[in-house]
Amino acid sequence: MDGPTLHDVAARSGVSIKTVSNVLRGTKGKVSAATAARVYAAIEELNYRPNLSARRLRTGRSDVIALVVPDLRNPYFAEVATAMIGAARQAGYTLLIDETGGDPDVELSAAEGLYDPLIEGVIMSPLTLDQRQLGRRSRSIPLVLLGERDYSGPCDHVMFDNIEASYQITGHLVEQGYSRIAVIGRQDDPPHATAVKRLKGYHKALRAAGLRSHRALAPVVPGAPYSKTAGAQAAHQLLRQEERPDAIYCFADVLAIGALRAAHEHGLHAPADFGLAGFDGVEEGRFTIPTLTTIAPDFADMAALAVSALAERIRSTAGIEHRDIRCRYELVIGESSRRSPASAPAS
Prior knowledge:
Shape: elongated
CATH superfamily of the largest domain: Response regulator
Structural class: alpha/beta
Number of helices: 12
Distance between the termini: 84 Å
CATH class of the largest domain: Alpha Beta
CATH topology of the largest domain: Rossmann fold
Order of helices and strands: HHHHEHEHEHEEHEHHEHEEHEE
Helix content: 40-55%
Strand content: 5-15%
Largest sheet: 6 strands, parallel
Number of domains: 3
Strand order of the largest sheet: 2-1-3-4-5-10
């Protein structure tokens, strides 16, 4: 026997099929809370489950898109995923989520739609996928890329200016009176675009302030994506130096949280003993002691721009040229970089 249909749900809840569809899509502003509650009650009573394959046969569309990130345990990507779910639902799409672990073969598979014919488009934050690999795709599915790596070709790229953001947060540390500023996040083999751009902004700010950079103040962090463990290990190297840094700028909040733990083990605390700044604006940084100074991207803006760009590519019957799309971000001043008068250098 065939299962319950959309018609059955509409009849049980006393509404139109269009209203049931709006409820299932999460379309806000079109259905009252009371009506939505009746529809959800009917769905539970009938044990209704949408048939995506049937929908595609009927309309030519599945309304399914995918988000692919390197590591869902990383709070930055978890926040990206949360924002994308909301933006996709608002646009009427079902969002599937997968992670790659930074594996280049998995990233290429994701850029081709994960071998799933129901997936109409992909939003992906790649770690290793480069322009050459992107050109080898066997399935040219609509694609929007997130992250710091530069791309061209038939896809869109949503991100903010990482060099300028890194320049701003390093400049903030300089303005606080710090002069021996270390960085955690440098990568050499291979150098990920995140590390390259944020290091470039850091060096730019030091030069503008007339400060020298020291290689000993930029320990190499192995692997990607960044982690608390990597942050703690690099902080241990810095804090064992005879002449310790007076501030540490981490290229990710998870690195900064790891650095806080390492400092605690050395009997040191930010900002009393050193200044600390992160990058990514994750929620966890608002609850650390001290709260983190960080660069906070507007996750909702990023998600809305990415889903809108992907939906436009899905609907378009003509080719769309590559677009670089900028989302908003802000410098958030937390407790970790506020230098107390007692620790500030004498003028």
